[in-house]
Amino acid sequence: MSATAAPVANSSGSVTNQAIQVLQGPYITNTYGGGIQCQGPTLNVTPYITGAASAQKPYEPYYNDPVYDVTDNFGAFDENGNPVGDGILDNPGDVIFYKKTRTGQKDNYNLSVGVSATWSRPLDSKLQEQCKEAAAANIALMQQQAANKRLDFEIARLKNCGELKKQGITFHPKSPYYSICADVVVRNVDYVPPHRHTIPSVSKQTSVPVSPVSVRAEDLGGPLQTK
Q1: pTM of the model as a whole
Q2: Which of 73, 90, 112, 200 is deepest in the core (most CB within 10 A)?
Q3: What's the Cα-to-Cα distance from 153 to each of 19, 28, 64, 158, 187, rounded to whole Å?
Q4: From CA 106, how far away is CA 38, in angstroms rounded?
């Protein structure tokens, strides 16, 4: 009978490949009306966080490795008659003790944090400047058109409010629309609307001639006293 030690070693592992893909977006396009569109430089910033975890359950950091009895002291004799081993274990299968052996089992955790950025800029700067000039001219044109519309509105308001004020038609001061014509002033109006005046009649009185020289004592103001 013979016993042969056959140690067994097992190992396992895993590999995880992670990649970050940066997608470059189109240029930022500004539209100003009239078919004018300008593209400017673009900065793309992409933050990312990746993580991975691997573990084995149940977690066993150590295992008991049995140590067998491999003594061979009996079974034969030497030339002097002393017992010697015969190549066969004296106590096959007997475990002397258990030795703690590390398994090498580990939990793996991975966390990656980063930022990816790309900067895109058109190469033809002349076309960019021309597009900006066209955009500025178109904005100025739209502002002038808006000013013309505003002027037309104010003139129409002035005319209509003036005509109504000539006719004596106004909003009540407590009306929410009173402020529409509040700043319109009508001056130098020579038009008088039709109206009537009542003149009271005067009765005839007998005229008394007045003397330029006082001939009565009463005109002096009081009675005369003679001492």
Answers
A1: 0.42
A2: 90
A3: 63, 38, 98, 9, 21
A4: 57
